Amino acid sequence: MRFEETKLQGAFIVHLEPKEDDRGFFARSFCQNEFAEHGLKTSIAQANLSFNHKAGTLRGMHFQYPPAAETKLIRCTTGSLYDVIVDLRPESSTFGQHIGVELSAANHVALYVPERFGHGFMTLVDGTEASYQVGEFYTPGKEGGLRFDDPTLGISWPMTPAVMSDKDSGWPTFESQRAEISSGMTPLKIEE
After folding, report:
1. Does the pTM of the predicted model rise above 0.85?
2. Closest by alpha carbon to 103, among 70, 123, 76, 78?
3. Fewer C-beta within 10 Å: the chain N or C terminus?
4. Nearest residue to 80 (alpha-carbon basis) of 115, 27, 124
5. Would you state the pLDDT for residue 149?
6. Short-list 77, 8, 72, CA closest to 35
7. Is 132 a catalytic residue?
8. Of these residues, 62, 65, 98, 112, which one is catalytic?
9. Where are the beta strands (DSSP E) in 71-161?
10. CB atoms < 10 A from the CB of 188, how many?
11. How far apart are the C-alpha atoms of 73 and 11, rounded to whole Å?
C-alpha cells in the first residue's frame, strides 16, 4: 500500500499496490503493521456496509464524541462517491477544515479518517456501495453531526442532494456546536 497524507494531519488516502497478471490483480488493502508504521490506529471494532440506490444520496456529516471517537477506513466497492472529512480537533492547526476525495470501485482508493473527524459522502452514480472498517463501536449517546451545507465549512458537493435522511438534513451548524466539539462534552440533543 502507498499512504498519501492529506493536508489534514493524520488523514491518509490509501492507494493499493496491485500485483497484476492475466487473471486481474491481487493487492493488500489492510495490514496492521503498515498502518502502525504510519502512526495509524489498527483496531477494528466494526465493519459496516452502506448501499445506496440513487446518485446524489448524501449521508453525513457524522462523528462520535470522545471517549467513543472512532477511526474509519472507507472504501467504495461498487459505483462511485465523493467522501468528505472535517477536522474537529480543536488543538489541530486545521481545525474546521475539510477535504473531499473521490472513492470508486474503479480507482480502488481508500480514505483513513482519524478520531475526532466529521465524515460524510455523496454518491455519484446509482447503486453505490461503501465499506467501512471502524475503530470504535457505534455509541448512540455520543453521536453528533454537522450540517452538510454549513456555510462555515464551505463544502462544495458535486451536486444537490437527491436523497438524505431527516436526521442528516437536521444536524446543527459547526458554529452552534463549537463549544461542545472543542471540549468533547456530551452532544446537543437532536430531535429525530
Report:
1. yes
2. 76
3. C
4. 124
5. 97
6. 72
7. yes
8. 62
9. 72-78, 80-87, 98-104, 110-113, 117-123, 128-134, 143-145
10. 13
11. 10
Q: What digits encode the pLDDT tens for the residues 114-173?
A: 999 999 999 999 999 999 999 999 998 999 999 999 999 999 999 999 999 999 999 999
The catalytically annotated residue of 65, 82, 112, 132 is 132
Q: Is residue 62 flagged as an active site residue? A: yes
Report the chain's C-alpha Rg in angstroms: 16
Work out the number of other CB atoms within 10 angstroms of the CB of residue 40: 19
What digits encode the pLDDT tens for the residues 62-111? 999 999 999 999 999 999 999 999 999 999 999 999 999 999 999 999 99
The strands making up 128-134's β-sheet, listed across from edge to edge, are 2-5, 12-15, 110-113, 72-78, 128-134, 46-52
